[in-house]
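Illustration: Glycerate kinase.
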Amino acid sequence: MKKIVIASDSFKGSVSSADVAQSAREGILRVFPECEVICLTVSDGGEGLYETLLQQLKGKQIICSAHNSQMETINAGYILSEDGKTAVIETAAANGLALIPKEKRNPMEATTFGTGELIKNAIRRGCRNILLGIGGSATNDAGTGMLQALGIRFRDENGTILGYGGKILTRIASIDESGVLPELKDCRFTIICDVNSPLFGPNGAAYVYAPQKGADREQVRFLDKGLRNFSHIIKQEKGINISKVSGAGAAGGMGAACLAFFHAQLKPGIETVLEIIGFDKLIVEADLIITGEGKLDRQTIMGKTASGILAAARKHHIPVIALGGCVENTKELIDAGFLATFSILPYPVTLEQAMQKDFTLCNIANTTEQIMRIIKNQTQ
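Result:
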């Protein structure tokens, strides 16, 4: 093996994209010490977007006060470009799932208000171009919290202003934009998302993603009903049909809000990131690409990082191997084009142990080493 590219998403809640790459590199060099190994930090628009683009844009880090999904005050950051005209903001920075302990997750209450605060901060600094990554959220509020932070109010049938969280969606009867931040109309939004799911229905935001955010079956049905109502109100008041738009269900429906209120351009997250970092040039003459994420399953091929890496690699006829802490739906992943998929877990462990950083990094290195040994044996 002369050249291998490592471009993996983070293993959410455990290790970063950069950590995965460095550990996989270690495993490769144990077997192929002369191999050129290119380690890339990538993201599909969720957790890790910030780190991925900070150097590429030669920007600076802006830290400001914001609220997490439980309306607790935290410090969150975003990237301000060198010329001060563009801000890169990720929902995960303020309203990410990883910020909330598992036992406290509740999409009925969770809000995207903090993301709106980051947008507002950037606009007041003079930014008019907003690149917003909307993956990795703890929310299912259809972006209403974000819009509330920007001055938009949602009222029930009695005209009462509603509060925050997914629980308000079924009660929205009208939208009040009289207090919206004036500068918002001059802003250009590009939204990058990590999934291509519709807003509601069996493949929508609630049914597919709300359970991992803490919702039980009854809450999932309630949230899906709310997303349907939100879509109806948007069509009624703004004349925009977001019911079947691919990506509208990203980040618990935030994709829909961005389309309806920002007239945003919605782009697949990983494709946008790969374009920015010049991925096509970096993989020229590579013998293999290694990618992965914490859990490999059918969602992996619905616009996630690994699927974007695979699509780019196939244009150059480069094989791709995917690593995951957990691997499901193997046949579907192989049918999608992966050469092989591997779980990094060497034996049954508790979820708590599986998520430990040192344990994960060691397993990534060891698994990669074993793969390299197989390859070396076959090529001798």
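Reading the tokens back as a structure: The radius of gyration is 21 Å.
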